[in-house]
Design a protein that fits this description.
By secondary structure, this protein is α/β, with parallel strands linked by helices. It has ten helices and seven strands. It has a single domain, classed as Rossmann fold. The longest helix has 20 residues. InterPro entries: AB_hydrolase_fold, TEII, TesA-like, Thioesterase.
Length: 251
């Protein structure tokens, strides 16, 4: 049983959308924060009500303890979402956010108010296992990995004070997602729209396609170039995919 939490603490809304036809909940990547989705909110509002999840341990929640597992984080996010599941809702998750969105969707469906569609971006399917063992790496190795993947402001990585601030969150999230695994039979009833880069070192297109084995409703696959954070290079196209899908499923 989940414990009720403060919805406003967990969900950030950057733009008002009083007449929105659907709500989009965005889940950040490992080490990421809600503000990463500010451009998505700018692009989709006011047609859609965009909210972004703020995990404990970062930005204005930096004094809070990290959540060590995907399962516990999903429980807590689900509790925070209960009050906003009052109409058509979709989930968008990138990288670690994709598996978290999937787990939250499973919990929402069990309580009878699941999302109409889930966007899984930049992540292999939940049942596909790789031994990356980032939790055993030192800071220098993790920093090298972050630089390779992109998506983090270079000023953060070169400024010792800022680097020391973000590294604990990244390490915690890496450990959480590396310990996570879903059985092949774990499924949701909502369709899954998969977005992935053909040159992403974290997942192959075939591994990403296996997301469709975790839904009873099928879905689509959209491929890009640009590496793990392809969505920064192709922001307009990503927003177009989201908007077109929401118009289709959230009528």
């Amino acid at each position: 049983m989940t414990t009720p939490v403060d919805t406003e603490l967990w969900l950030r809304r950057y733009h008002d959308a009083p007449d929105a036809g659907a709500r989009l909940i965005c889940f950040p990547h490992a080490g990421g924060s809600a503000s990463y989705y500010f451009p998505v909110s700018t692009a989709l509002t006011p047609e859609f009500d965009v909210r972004a999840v703020q995990y404990p341990g970062r930005q204005d929640r930096r004094r809070e303890e990290f959540v060590p597992t995907i399962e516990e984080l999903a429980d807590r996010v689900h509790s925070a979402l209960i009050s906003v599941l009052d109409g058509p809702v979709a989930f968008f998750g990138h990288s670690m956010g994709a598996v978290l969105a999937f787990e939250v969707a499973r919990r929402c469906e069990r309580s009878g108010n699941g999302p109409v569609v889930v966007f899984a971006s930049g992540r292999r399917a939940p049942s596909v296992i790789r031994d990356e063992s980032a939790r055993f790496r030192d800071d220098a190795t993790i920093l090298a990995e972050i630089r390779k993947l992109g998506g983090t402001d270079s000023r953060v990585l070169t400024d010792p004070e800022m680097r020391d601030m973000v590294l604990p969150a990244i390490r915690n999230d890496y450990q959480a997602v590396e310990k996570y695994h879903a059985d092949a039979g774990a499924r949701i009833t909502a369709p899954i729209v998969v977005l992935t880069a053909t040159d992403d070192p974290r997942t192959t297109v075939a591994e990403a396609e296996q997301w469709h084995e975790h839904t009873a409703a099928g879905g689509t696959l959209h491929t890009f170039d640009g590496g793990h954070f392809y969505l920064e290079k192709h922001a307009k196209r990503v927003v177009s995919v989201i908007a077109h899908t929401l118009r289709e499923f959230a009528r």
